[in-house]
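fyi for ur records
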Amino acid sequence: MIARDGRVVVVGGGLASARTISALRRKGLTGPIDVISGEPHLPYDRPPLSKDVLTGSRDDTALPFDIAKLDVTVHRNRRAVGLDTASRTVRTDAGDIAYDGLVIATGASPIRMPGDGDQLTLRTIDDALTLRRRLVPGHHLVIIGASWIGAEVATVARDNGCAVTCLESAEVPLAGAIGDDAARHLLPWWKGIDLRCGVTVGSVTPNGVLLADGSTVPADSVVTGVGVRPAVGWLDDSGLSVDRGVLTDASCRTDAPNVVALGDVAQRWSPSAGKHTLVEHWDDAGGAAAAAAAALLSDDPPVLDPVPYFWSDQFGHKIQYTGAHSSTDAVAVYSDHDGALAAVTWTAADGTLTAWLGIDRPRDVVPARTSVGGPVTESPVVEALQKTHRVVHDYEGARR
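which gave:
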């Protein structure tokens, strides 16, 4: 732990860093706080970028972050390029900064496709504003990846009158996230979009997207939405244990003294899962921030192991998911009487409910989240589904 008047350096300028700084001040840190952010902006919220900002209902998503009240120094447009844990120094492109305690919250970077053509991603406020200016009637937008972000971009582009083509390597959108049988029920949502599944992208060229079969899909703009990678490159040679993300214990502590990591960059130990996991969800930042702050200021920080939760707004529907399923779980797919997808549940071999997904069912999220980890037979949400909805698929996945 560090002294209450010690210097804390926070690398990253997003939600996780903003909440950790607030938690540190609430918990009594009086020493200086330096924030190293690669962006020119103060911390802002990312989920609204593909929703409110892209639709034009908002121009920014700034978080409550009063520099004077929090007594922080924000180094904007400054990037961390290395870390020396022995001397407790962060190397940046504008000089070194020493620390007593370090918060690593550098988030993740979008994966980009090969090629010299212009391709957009949607990760920052500047990305969102740039893309918004292009989404005008008649503009031909090609989206690589029918992912969560791909579907949200496709929704806005279609509603704005763009000609939208979406290229997806799987046989159906979101198959990797929720499974083929559940995902097939989402296909009607893509009406009005040229959705091409089972295709492989080779590269992005100045003329559009070159496919592996040698054909080209012309485009005015290309958006790549095939996932992100934790931003850990600056930690090479730091001595920290890094897998896909920075490895931490269940209290956000790394294996270096007084260094914590959280948010999309962290691969935190989950006692319930029995492994390190990348959470990568907005909902996790609050609890992780409190744990990370406590880990710097005390020797007995809380153990963090919440049930994961995330949501996506696409094609006029809200998808909400809680839990963490595996490919060996039994799956039940429920539909309304008109055949529309209503919910999906995943159950482990021992009868434990591992995950739930609902379509336009916000009232069911809390009881579903509290049911995860318990017997599926005792879940009020599942019981209600079984009484009021039709099971269109009930299968055991890889267990068969």
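Residues 331 and 346 are 5 Å apart (CA to CA). thats all i got for now
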